[in-house]
Design goal:
Elements: H1 3-12, E1 40-43, H2 45-48, H3 53-70, E2 73-76, H4 82-105, H5 115-125, H6 129-152, E3 155-157, H7 170-173
Parallel strand pairs: 1-2, 1-3
Helix pairs in contact: 4-5, 4-6
């Protein structure tokens, strides 16, 4: 089984349940077809390396295998102002959440929701319309940076998760992805 599918599947399946209660994973056996050539993969090291050693190793191995088997090239790129974009994204989501839930929140008793939701809604409600507009400006600026990356690359690659839930031997025992 491919290691990236294995990691993704493990992340979404409740591992605490007995194996007979877990959904069955049936991957189709694909026949070999002509591969897509000249694919350029953009790798932003700060994102790519922000994971545990086992995931980073597996993902590096996947990139090496893609290069060896299909000739796909990996390009090192930088995504500027990514931390600012993360904060802008938080403001955007919070503002839109507050706006869409406003009519329900007025009728809701605070005791009916958990403290985590109360804190989040309190923070979201503190965002001003100016903060929202500035977030949209940052979003547009970030779109420019991504369009520049996609002028030289076809895909931005990054691990799907920062940590594995359990040890997966598929990356260590198979030479395929």
């Amino acid at each position: 089984m491919p290691c990236f599918v294995n990691f993704s599947y493990s992340a979404i399946v409740d591992q605490s349940q007995p194996s007979y209660l877990r959904p069955e994973l049936n991957l189709p056996m694909l026949t070999s077809t002509p591969s897509i050539s000249n694919v350029r993969l953009a790798k932003y090291g700060k994102w790519f390396n922000d994971s545990s050693e086992d995931i980073r190793t597996c993902c590096d191995k996947a990139l090496q295998t893609l290069r060896a088997q299909y000739g796909w090239e990996t390009l090192d790129v930088t995504v500027p102002e990514i931390e600012e974009m993360r904060l802008a994204h938080y403001v955007t989501i919070g503002s839109e959440c507050t706006a869409s839930l406003a009519k329900y929140l007025d009728k809701l008793k605070r005791s009916e929701i958990g403290w985590d939701v109360r804190v989040a809604l309190g923070v979201y409600g503190s965002f001003s319309s100016r903060a929202y507009l500035n977030s949209q400006r940052l979003r547009n600026r970030q779109m420019f940076f991504h369009k520049e990356i996609f002028k030289t690359a076809d895909v931005i690659v990054s691990p799907m998760t920062g940590y594995s839930l359990s040890v997966h031997h598929s990356c260590n025992t198979h030479n395929r992805i």
